[in-house]
């Protein structure tokens, strides 16, 4: 009996020693590595096809949309068609800088619209020119015009998850100090200039202050501006593509926006004619 006890004790000691000596896994990614690989994947994106599901808060209500998107980055060319049959096409150097837009409603004619104008920005947080992952890159890196980068520095690797069966790294920002602050430009500034200074995007500046996208904020006018992009921001990054599959932003009022990307085909050739107004299947 005593011999049996000694053998069991010896086995426990050997097993414990073996576990203690086992090497610690080194395949975990650091916050810095994740941010670097995500930024690099976005920067190196030459072409993109994907489906985008969006949920955005507009005037206290949620607007949802699902769109098919394709783009090239150099030169920038963007084609989008949503579930309502609305189409938009923008190509660098064409149509005097306007986008071709088919509204799929009366009078069923193609319109020429400024992609950064009020009509095209109605009921959506971002411009057509930000389609894809450009705005996400801006959120995590911040503008060089920002003086306070506390928000961007708040991102941390927060573990792994599955999105539609695909392994993802989770990038999380907790920014409890999110709030609106007063800002008075010393000289007239565009919404883009102000948004870049505060890293907040243009939409909430327009909504909070009753402004128009195509008009600058005059000198001496005090407005309310968010001091960051969100109170809690979650980005789920596909471990293989190193591109976002989910981006969710909460602010002082709750869910601000959520984007889900699927059917992603990155850096595969897209024929130039697919960005032509008369391409087969388009109603533009």
TrEMBL record:
Keywords: Signal
Gene3D superfamilies per UniProt: LysM domain
Domain (LysM): residue spans on this chain: 181-225
Signal sequence range: 1-22
Name of the protein described by the UniProt record: DUF1571 domain-containing protein
């Amino acid at each position: 009996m005593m011999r049996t006890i000694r053998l069991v004790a010896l086995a426990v000691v050997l097993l414990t020693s073996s576990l203690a000596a086992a090497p610690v896994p080194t395949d975990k990614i650091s916050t810095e590595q994740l941010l670097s690989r995500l930024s690099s994947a976005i920067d190196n994106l030459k072409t993109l096809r994907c489906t985008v599901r969006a949920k955005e808060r507009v005037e206290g209500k949620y607007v949802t949309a699902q769109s098919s998107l394709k783009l090239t980055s150099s030169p920038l060319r963007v084609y989008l068609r949503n579930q309502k049959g609305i189409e938009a096409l923008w190509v660098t150097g064409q149509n005097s800088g306007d986008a071709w837009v088919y509204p799929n409603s009366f009078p069923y004619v193609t319109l020429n619209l400024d992609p950064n104008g009020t009509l095209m920005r109605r009921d959506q947080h971002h411009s057509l020119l930000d389609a894809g992952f450009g705005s996400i890159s801006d959120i995590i890196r911040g503008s060089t015009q920002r003086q306070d980068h506390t928000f961007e520095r708040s991102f941390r690797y927060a573990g792994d998850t599955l999105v539609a069966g695909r392994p993802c790294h989770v990038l999380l920002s907790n920014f409890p100090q999110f709030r609106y602050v007063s800002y008075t430009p010393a000289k007239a500034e565009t919404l883009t200039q102000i948004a870049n200074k505060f890293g907040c995007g243009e939409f909430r500046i327009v909504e909070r202050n009753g402004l128009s996208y195509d008009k600058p904020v005059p000198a001496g006018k005090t407005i309310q501006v968010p001091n960051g992009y969100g109170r809690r921001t979650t980005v789920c990054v596909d471990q293989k593509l190193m591109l976002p599959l989910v981006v969710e932003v909460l602010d002082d009022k709750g869910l601000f926006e959520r984007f889900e990307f699927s059917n992603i085909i990155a850096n595969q050739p897209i024929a130039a004619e697919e960005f032509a107004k008369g391409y087969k299947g388009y109603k533009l």
